[in-house]
Hints:
Elements: H1 5-22, E1 33-35, E2 44-47, H2 52-55, H3 59-73, E3 77-83, E4 86-91, H4 93-105, E5 117-121, H5 133-151, E6 155-162, H6 167-179, H7 185-188, H8 192-216, H9 221-227, H10 229-242, H11 246-270, E7 277-280, H12 281-284, H13 289-298, E8 302-304, E9 307-311, E10 319-323, H14 331-345, E11 349-357, H15 361-373, E12 382-387, E13 390-391, H16 407-425, H17 433-453, E14 461-462, H18 465-468, H19 476-493, H20 524-534, H21 536-546, H22 549-569, H23 578-601
Parallel strand pairs: 5-6, 5-11, 6-7, 11-12, 13-14
Antiparallel strand pairs: 1-2, 2-4, 3-4, 8-9, 9-10
Helix pairs in contact: 1-3, 4-20, 5-21, 6-8, 6-10, 8-9, 8-11, 13-14, 16-17, 19-22, 19-23, 20-22, 20-23, 21-22, 22-23
The protein binds one RNA strand through strand 9, strand 10, helix 15, helix 16 and strand 14.
Amino acid sequence: MMTDPLQARLELAVQRAFQELFNAEVALKQIGFQPTRPEFEGDVTMNVFPFLKLSGKAPEATATAIGEFLAREEPVVARFNVIKGFLNLVIADSYWLGFLQEAGTRDILALPSTGKKVMVEYASPNTNKPLHLGHMRNIFLGHSVSRILESAGNEVVRVQVVNDRGIHICKSMVAWQKFGNGETPQSSGLKGDKLVGKYYVEFDKELKRQVQEQEAGGKPKEQAEKEAPILLEAQEMLRKWEANFAEVRALWSTMNGWVYEGFRETFKAMNVPEFDKNYYESQTYVLGKEDVLKGLEKGVFYEKDGAVWVDNTPEGLDEKVLLRRDGTSVYMTQDIGTAIKRFEEYPGLSQLIYTVGNEQDYHFKVLFIILKKLGFPWASELHHLSYGMVDLPSGKMKSREGTVVDADDLIEEVVNEARAMGEQLSKLDDFSEKEKKDLYEMIGLAALKYYLLKVDPKKRMLFDPAASIDLQGHTGPFIQYTYARIRSLNRRVMAGVWTGSLKFPEAEIQFAWQPSTTSDQLQPLEKELLKRLHHTPSALLESADKLDPSILANHAYEIAKAYNSFYQAVPVLKEEDGRKKLFRHNLSIDVAKVLKKAMWCLGIEVPERM
RNA sequence: GAUCCCGUAGCUCAGCUGGAUAGAGCACCUGCCUUCUAAGCAGGCGGCCGUUGGUUCGAAUCCAACCGGGAUCACCA
């Protein structure tokens, strides 16, 4: 990894070794290091098997020769040992100590600016129902990826497309007109999105009733489903909406307004910021038509039966309609137009990432190919951040069958669990009610977010309600707890003065450890921690490259775990030797800093006490 | 029918750009609070890495076939 200066150094040295020892050229990329397995002495290990042809020697002899060269020529290598074809290198403590010093003076989770501007789209809900667990995976992912990209040196623009028009919202509108008796969020006290969602369900109920009725009257099922009066009404409502009927538009605005108010509350409860820009489908759905016609002129698309098509069979895909015979758009059309519009609106934009479920993999493949065919230079910088569905122990989530996990309910549940645990431990009796409430929300949300983010986004995941509110083990609260422990140490150092400040006391505590060449100053648990910290920039970069927060999430967990082992076995403030005490405290501070920033990248806050 | 994704411990997941004896958490069992927060630590139990072949000095990792699970393939959104 390029961000790992140690590895880069060693690779160069090994390259030199091959030149001087065997008169052989080796590309840096071919030289790979891996962490040394714990049962052997060493920090990093090089496998020499791939290079035996170059050296013309046996594995042990090759490894030994390189090891001797490195120990002699490269100061960071303190010593080495060889086991079979494995060259284990012990890195000088002074290197790790130097790293610690550096980590103390700057944010190692802030990579140099790339100068790139990246747009991330996520959330993109429909306005006919409340947010649920599936949205939460999407939103936490999109938000986290945005922050990771920021930390990795990019400027990020967050956007969503609000699917505010279409048959779905018309269904809610029709049902509300029929059965609503003028109900509003104010009159019933129901959250706006819940209220609109309720009428969407009402619509479905009534539809089913009518279909059954008509079936009983002798109509075939398919016909009954198409001809149900309430469905026809919804379709009529959609036509009126498109024709700009004032009353329909007014009702539409009102009901969407209720939904937005509800969404705002949920976003607040999720502790996720709003977007830099919202695109509304009611505005974007007209986009793309002209672009498609231009493509037709250029010969990128073709006409058949009066419709405009694109032929993606050369790419191994199918043909696809872009404009219907009657000249109207399909979903793809507006996505083409919206993408183009975004790059016009944001001139320096170099990348666009769509956070959308993997059931739309095919759609985005086609979209990207089309934009490439239209000749947009940025088309190769489009990414579909495709994530897997969230399953429940009972099976798939289906909104029609009422098996969805509601976002608001879930947050409430997880916060209640945090409260129950907190009160049982009763460490916080001096907290005010407000402080307790804030803390339990922070902990509950951490459990939920971490649970959803620790899994590779690409993979379908199982949502186990019990595990998601777990506060122990491989969880967000475990990392929070580690942070709080360290902050407690910090406070003691500062003579018990509790300021409530989130600032780290670097100013108060100077780094006083003098790196020296004498080896083995570091205890194994200290070194283990330093190595994990040292790997942080690489983890961040990999997370950013792969658009995968789980890499950073798991890295943070590894650090927290290593810290807790260290904390348990090695005294910090009770250490008599002042230099050691200071060193360990500095180490602790850096762990806290990294944990806090890594959690920030995941959209998770950390408490000063818990 | 075609294409794509996924099969690792009882459960949930890491590891997958090939390397040493495959790792965590949960669950279960044993210890550890008169020393810095026990939401913790130390230890134990638990694996034909879906199956079969191939490539390789070496395969959970790459390739092929098969089995099992999921998704997608509309002049729908």
